[in-house]
From TrEMBL:
Residues 31-117 form the Cyclic nucleotide-binding domain. It comes from the Bacteria. Pfam families: cNMP_binding. It comes from Sphingobacterium daejeonense. This is Crp/Fnr family transcriptional regulator.
Length: 191
């Protein structure tokens, strides 16, 4: 729980009042999921905003021949199929755990209560949305501006945990290339 409070305070760049923390904490549900557990299918509605205590979650668009990985979430960070969560409409993505995962979750309606009944609730929601928007924009720019090798090198620099903990087929999909093309890039870089 302290990791979550720390993450929230870093997000709002301020100390969270104890009464707000207690109210927020009372709404949380602890859940554990096995490796390869489908958290949500494309077409379903995301009902929870989660904080990953331990684990990795892959968000992807299912395809007839192969999936397209669009995002990965790791320990000590907030996660959700956020567009579905915010609109309470169907998701375009599916999400699955890549390893045993434990998280704290809050439902959409409970989060709305936190926004209404705490002094920092709206600030938390706004800052989380801003961070997610920036991350999404950076990813889009990377896909449009950089070639595959540059995207891989950028991942090595900025997110080495992706390289170490993600199966190559998902990593290749995240970069927007085939596993074979990723192997060639890795060989060229390590030569």
């Amino acid at each position: 729980m302290e990791n979550l409070r720390t993450a929230m305070e870093e997000l709002i760049q301020a100390k969270m009042p104890d009464q707000d923390w207690e109210y927020f904490q009372s709404k949380l549900i602890f859940k554990e999921f096995p490796k390869k557990h489908r958290l949500i299918e494309a077409g379903q509605t995301e009902r929870y905003l989660s904080f990953i205590i331990k684990g990795i979650i892959r968000f992807y668009i299912p395809g007839p021949e192969h999936d397209t990985t669009v995002y990965m979430a790791f320990d000590n960070w907030f996660t959700s199929v956020y567009d579905s969560f915010v609109t309470q409409g169907p998701s375009y993505y599916s999400a699955e755990t890549l390893q045993e995962t434990s998280m704290l979750r809050i439902s959409y309606s409970d989060l709305q209560d936190v926004y209404k009944n705490t002094s920092v609730g709206n600030l938390i929601g706004r800052r989380a949305s801003e961070v997610l928007f920036v991350l999404k924009t950076q990813r889009e720019i990377s896909l449009l501006k950089l070639n595959a090798e540059e995207r891989y090198l950028q991942l090595l620099k900025e997110q080495p945990h992706l390289i170490q903990n993600i199966p190559q087929k998902y990593l290749a999909s995240y970069i927007g290339i085939t596993p074979q093309a990723l192997s060639r890039i890795r060989k060229r870089i390590n030569a």
